[in-house]
Amino acid sequence: MKNNEFEFGIYSLGELIPGPSGQTQSAKSRIDDIIAMAKLADEAGLDLFGIGEHHRLDFVTSSYAMILAAIAQATKNIRLTSTLSVISTADPVRVYEDFATLDLISGGRAELIAGRGAFLESFELFGADLRKYDELFENKLELMMQLIKKERVSWQGQFRPALHNAAIAPRPFQPSIPLWIGVGGTPESAARAGRLGVNMALGILGGDPRRVKPLVDIYRAAGKAAGHDPSQLRVSVTGHSYIAETSIQALDEFHPHYNNYFGYFLKERGQRFSVSRSELDVMTAPDNVLAVGSPQQLVEKILYQHELFGHSRFMGQFDMGGQSLSKVAKAIELLATEVAPAVRKALKQK
């Protein structure tokens, strides 16, 4: 974190779905756009760029670490993170090797957000028992923490062969790779992150942020009870976002893509999704998490949430539902040149 400043970033999940017009990008074009987004974010001076892991035909990010490596070669300063790595269904040793290599390629810019994920396809794909959903994550997270700390690891767990003084290579450029735990809405996940003393990446897709504050309180209380330094327990807020010059423009441009995104993924679950333009106005009100609006509105929203959460990082998903690269580029510019400076200035004055 640069000079303890509040950090800003963007991320992509890399979905490959028909846009509101019905047309679908090619996989190559979608990956090209993701790399272009990262370059724009780097050039604009944002702090982070993230890619989520998904193993479906309607996503292009199954090999997300490889895309991040390509981005590392195309950028200079921006930190690169997973958003998030589904370690429940992966071999933590292999994930660690990938990110240590990414850290070397990027000159020390890699981070890792570990989580259980919202999609379940990887369980069957990689032979993981869905009935052991929580146990898998707990067990493999424990191993990941050991891999980050030590060059040689001896470890025994339930879901992979034991390690006996195993050499864990390569070692990263940084002293260690920063680790975050992705937390959705469960108190147990927040408590685990605090107990382990790991940063918490809080994924919030909508609603009143005051309803989420108990998760942050649980996280910090668990960390304190476990003897961790409270100043080292960092919180990030991530979620769907969009910025345009005016509120009306932002909502008009975001609305069809929001409906398109949720309409597509909820349809396969037998659910229908359609939010009217007037309903979206309510969903993006100042006391709602959904970070869509003018730069000033996002400044006010982030500062309001900072009062509640005391978080030190904001990351937005700008490209959801087939949003065009040109509009995402403008949103990145506004985040970097108007939102970030105003938030940092306000926080310094407190």
TrEMBL record:
GO cellular component terms attached to this protein's record: cytosol
* Luciferase-like domain segment(s): 17-310
Q: Which InterPro entries match?
A: Bact_Lucif_Oxidored (IPR050766), Luciferase-like_dom (IPR011251), Luciferase-like_sf (IPR036661)
Which domain of life does this protein belong to? Bacteria
Query: Which Pfam families has this protein been placed in?
Result: Bac_luciferase
Q: A single Gene Ontology molecular function, please?
A: monooxygenase activity
Kindly state which keywords UniProt assigns to this record, in alphabetical order: Monooxygenase, Oxidoreductase
Recorded protein name is Luciferase
Species, as recorded? Paenibacillus pectinilyticus
